[in-house]
Fold this sequence. Notes:
It is a single chain. This protein is mainly alpha-helical. The chain is built from one helix and no strands.
Amino acid sequence: MRPLKSLISLDDAKKIIDKNVKLLNRKEKIGIENCLDRVLAVDVKAGFDVPGFDRA
């Protein structure tokens, strides 16, 4: 691996990222069978404890 010629400042790096990255603000509800390679928008919470006892 060749060495870096020069470094940029943190502020310049942040500006480059902000300029080139677009945030996604959309969500969709899909079935579990279609979830592969997806990212969760919110936490998943179970409606009840599984298993139903404390010493699992």
